[in-house]
Amino acid sequence: MTSARSALTRARREIPGGIIAVVLALLIVLPVAFIVVAALTTEVPRPGNAGIGSFTSGNFGILATQNGVRSLLNSVGIGAGAAVVSLVIGASLAFIAARTDAPWRRFIFIAGMAPMFLPSIVGSLAWSLLASPTAGYLNIALRDLGVPVTFDVYSYGGLVFVLGVYYAPYTFMLTHSSFSMMNADLEEASAVHGASLWSMLRTVTLPLAVPALAGAAILSFALSLENFPVNAILGNPGGIETLPTYIYHLMAASPVRANAAAGIAVALTAALLVATYLQQRVVNRKRFTTLSGKGNRPRPVPLRWGRRVATGFAVLYFVVSVVLPVLALIVTSTSGSVYVNHIADMFSRGFTLERLSEAIGQQDFLTSTVNSVVVAVVAAVLGTTIAFSTSYIRYRTTSRLGQLLEQVSMSPLAIPQVVLGMGILWAWLILPVSLYGTIALLAVATVAVTMPQAYRSVSSSMLQLDPDLENSAVLLGARRFRAIRNVTVPLMRTGIVSTLLLLLMLGMREMSAVLFLYTSDTRVLSILVFQSFENGSLSFSAAISLVFVVVIAVIAVSAQLAAARERRFNGAGA
């Protein structure tokens, strides 16, 4: 009798974990399973037909075709090049901001992070306006000056450059903490023995930062490998096909080649899984002791004559990644001259807000804006709720499902967003709840692809909170749910708000996951920008992108203020 009661008690304790497991299975596991099934069958689910046909391995044969091999090689080459660019820029800025005596180090830190808040589709659109080989503003300026140089962003070099520039902030984040916490004793010993600055960096500093540098490089490679917006905006005009754009073209073809697209999707996911595994292996393999218990206040590395050069590098990066793209969008959407052959043409008819107001006054823009806000808000609320529940089960209960839920929550990092979106489409076509063609399906996809960020954000706050406060409320007679509601949630309020704002920003800029899910009535801003560009409506695309940037900037600033408030709150509580 006692054993039966104990088993019943354990079963009851697993009920919350079981519910979250079902939710995560619907969000992530089931869509991935449908991708695998579609890659091994002759049909995919579609409205009015849930059949999958017969099993076959022929779908993988597309990888051996000329287009398949070329797309694979393009993806690997562009991803590797972007990883190098990202590593050089991000790690250099991180070292300058964390360890040197360069002036304006606060600005350098902001410059290293700022491009993260510019959606990749907006950045790629802006650089198509700046460096189009025929009508790019930079090329027009160079021709006016008589400089025989032409930038072509619709090339392999252009793709590598833009992807590297906009993924450099990820490298910056991963390496800045490594440089900041690095014990400077070895560097100082090297300097005492007469080593030059370059020799010290090459033989001491960089070897100590190998785990962070290698992890950042592999992460940038993986992100570039799966990126769709930049490859579509800049690759298509130059005839450069990558695996994500190849999947899109197969799904947009007539007739649709969905099973072949699933075969490529499985290959792309496998490549991303390998890259993610290598990143974790490299990061965890070497644990260099760079922070000792005797305190760590390393003196800044003196750059001497290079101080202003280092700051100038940061300023140049900020101009290239933020200032020039935003200016290009402003000029395109407000210039009175539609066609610009010389720089003077931009100013010949002055600037006007007429085209900008006309663009944002169109019904397509208004509908897409409302859809984007609804999707972002719903996804932020649901994502934060699910992430909080998962994190609580993982770190505050004895549930056996905790680690499994954590792994499933983090798994979308290793699944390309465009692939997960395909799986969500097919999964929800046969589930009894019909969401196809609704805003709800876009919100589901957004929750799925942003779950890793939500889980990490909530978990970091939960791990900082002592569970004794909640347990004390339970000991005093409160039920567990009431203790969570009245104690844990209020104490984590700033962390929860930060997560909400983070997911709101990510939801507003999401494109790849909803690429196959929207209809004419459920189109969002990112899709509208992409379609407008493909249709040649550059002014309309630029106007939408400007609004995009403003909205995301407001959300980003709000998130930073919430994070600062959390730090002050935790400091006061300590």
Short description:
This protein has 574 residues and is mostly helical. The protein has 25 helices and no strands.
How would you describe this structure to a colleague?
- The chain is built from 25 helices and no strands.
- The protein is globular, with a radius of gyration of 25 Å.
- It starts with a helix and ends with a helix.
- Helix content is 72%, strand content 0%.
- It is mostly helical.
Q: How would the global form be characterised? A: globular
For the secondary structure, the number of strands is 0
How many helical stretches? 25
- Straight-line N-to-C gap: 47 Å
Strand percentage = under 5%
Structural class comes to mainly alpha
Q: Largest sheet at a glance?
A: none
Tell me the radius of gyration: 25 Å
Contiguous low-pLDDT stretches (5 residues minimum) are 286-295
Give the SSE order as H and E letters: HHHHHHHHHHHHHHHHHHHHHHHHH
* Average pLDDT number: 81
The percent of residues in helical segments reads over 70%
Explain the layout of strands and helices:
Layout lengths: L1 H12 L1 H25 L26 H34 L5 H9 L6 H12 L5 H8 L11 H25 L4 H8 L4 H12 L1 H17 L2 H7 L7 H10 L5 H28 L21 H28 L8 H6 L5 H7 L2 H34 L5 H9 L6 H14 L8 H25 L4 H8 L4 H12 L1 H17 L15 H10 L3 H36 L1
Give keywords.
574 residues, globular, mainly alpha, 25 helices
